[in-house]
C-alpha cells in the first residue's frame, strides 16, 4: 500500500481514525505493517502490500464466493486490450474524462483490471476493494500507478470514509448474499453530489440460465475444486468458442443475426479471444451465489437510496446497467424541508 491511502481509510467497526505502523517497505510501497484504530483498539495487518480488513469465516456463502472467485482471478489475471471498451459499455454513460481528478471507489475489484483503467484515466485516487485473495493479483497489476490502492475488505463493512466522488461495481453485486445492501454500502460512501454505477445480471431473457444452468452451478460445479474446474471448463469453452467464431461472428451484420439464439450477447462476445471466453464460462460455473435481477428490483435499489438523475439501460438484452447521483447537500435539505 501507499501511505497516501491512509487519508481515505477509517475503521470498519467504529469509523475511527487509523494509525499506520510500517514494518517493511519497498520505495513508496508499504509491504507489511499494521493499521490500528485509536477508537476501538482493533488492528488490521498489512500483508504483501495489501491492508487486510476482512475475515470471512462467519458467513459461509461469502467465504465460498470469495474463495472461488479469488482462485479464478488469480488464474485469469491477464489484462486484455478489449477490456477497456467492455468496461465502458458496462458503466455507460460514464466516459474516461468523467473520472479525471475524482476520488473513486470500486466495489469488487477482482484482479484490478477496472481499477487500473480508472487510474490511467486520471482519477485523483481509486481504491479497489475485494473480499477474496484476488487482491494479490490486483495489487501486482496496479502497484506501478501512484493513484491506485487495493484493500481486502467486506463490501458490507467498508473501511473507508464518506469522501468519494464516484463509486462503481461491475459484475459483483449479483454474487452477494444481499445485493441491495452491497449497493447501499457503496452509495453510503459517496459525498453529497457523488455518482454511482452498477452492472448486474438481468432476470429478463435469462430464464434458460436460471432454470437449467443455475442448478448445475449451485449443486455441482461451484463445489468442484477451482483447479479441476479450470480444466473441466475447457470443453464447454471450446464448443462455445467455435460457435462464436464460425457462426456468430460471420453472421453478426447479416439478416440472419436476429434468428440466432441469444444473439445480442453472443454476438457481442464473439470478438473476444479464447482465454476471455474461458474466463466467462468459468465465471458462470464457479459462483456459489448468483442472482438474476429484474429491472424493477434494480430500479428499487436507486429509489431506496433517494438517488437522482437515475439512468437504467438494457445491456445486450441480458443485463442491466445503472447510473445515478446522490443529491447535493442543498438539494437534500430542500427536499427534507418540504
Notable features of this structure?
338 residues; alpha/beta; Rossmann fold; 3 domains; 7-stranded mixed beta sheet; 37% helix
Topology, element by element:
Elements: E1 18-26, E2 29-37, E3 43-47, E4 50-51, H1 60-75, H2 83-91, E5 103-107, H3 113-120, E6 125-130, H4 135-142, E7 148-152, E8 164-170, H5 179-187, E9 190-201, H6 207-219, H7 226-232, H8 234-248, H9 263-269, H10 274-286, H11 295-304, E10 308-315, E11 319-325, H12 329-337
Parallel strand pairs: 5-6, 5-8, 6-7, 8-9
Antiparallel strand pairs: 1-2, 2-3, 3-4, 9-11, 10-11
Helix pairs in contact: 1-10, 8-10
Structure, explained:
The chain has twelve helices and eleven strands. With 338 residues, the chain is α/β, with parallel strands linked by helices. The chain has three domains: 1-52, no CATH class; 56-201 and 294-337, Rossmann fold; 207-286, no CATH class. The strands form two sheets. The protein has a seven-stranded mixed beta sheet, with helices on both faces. Strands 1-2-3-4 form a four-stranded antiparallel beta sheet. A hairpin with a 2-residue loop joins strand 3 and strand 4 (50-51). The radius of gyration is 20 Å and the shape is globular. The model is unreliable at 68-73 (pLDDT under 50).
